[in-house]
Design a protein that fits this description.
disordered C terminus
């Protein structure tokens, strides 16, 4: 079952076409699943996930034991890394899965490729259904700007205690050329539809300077 589909390592028209077809099939399945589960997935990433297994499998078939060609291909792949933007953990994982599927197919192990793709997508579906690692529905991020003349230590504690069941000051930085502070809090609302009252209370305290309230999200550089 897990033997190579290539007869004694040789490539034939039938084996190459079969490998290419399976690579396109698994690539499309993985891309379709990822785009359905991630509403923020871009069209560019969807095309990448769909075609990457075919490209990887073709490269592996062409190298086919040639050490010099293998080193050249490894070098070209390493250059691609420096021309790509930084992605999230799930995007990097999806790209690695597509590449690994192509590697399995290029080596002739079709059953291993199907097993790898099937297990990863199934387990991801289970984790998604269980809401594994998801933040609380009422968790919010607050960005409060206040004049540098105000002492921010404990300034908003009573307001935060009134509207949040728990909160934490995670960052303090200067803005507006050092003339103001920006406080970044993470917290969980006690009740729904209290955002406006919270913002009004903060604006009374910080002199009506900018206040931002949003859902907690991973920073672009975080995995």
């Amino acid at each position: 079952m897990f033997n190579s589909i290539f007869d004694k390592g040789s490539l034939t028209e039938g084996s190459v076409l079969l490998t290419a077809g399976l690579a396109l099939l698994l690539g499309f399945a993985g891309s379709l699943y990822y785009t359905k589960k991630n509403e923020t997935a871009t069209r560019s990433l969807a095309f990448t996930l769909a075609l990457l297994p075919l490209i990887t499998a073709t490269v592996i078939m062409v190298v086919n034991g040639n050490l010099g060609a293998g080193i050249a291909v490894a070098g070209s792949f390493s250059l691609i890394r420096f021309r790509s933007v930084q992605g999230t953990g799930q995007e990097i994982l999806a790209i690695f899965l597509a590449a690994a599927t192509g590697l399995c197919l290029g080596a002739g192990y079709a059953a291993m490729a199907f097993l790898l793709m099937g297990l990863c997508l199934s387990f991801h579906a289970v984790l998604t259904a269980c809401k594994f690692g998801r933040t609380a529905e009422n968790e919010r991020e607050m960005r409060i700007t206040l004049p540098e003349s105000l002492d921010y230590e404990g300034l908003f504690d009573d307001v935060l205690d009134a509207y949040f069941s728990r909160y934490e000051l995670v960052k303090v930085r200067t803005v507006e050329m050092g003339t103001a502070y920006q406080l970044v809090y993470h917290g969980v609302f006690r009740a729904e539809k209290t955002g406006k009252r919270f913002l009004d209370a903060v604006r009374e305290r910080n002199g009506n300077l900018p206040v931002a309230l949003s859902r907690t999200a991973d920073a672009p550089g975080e995995m």
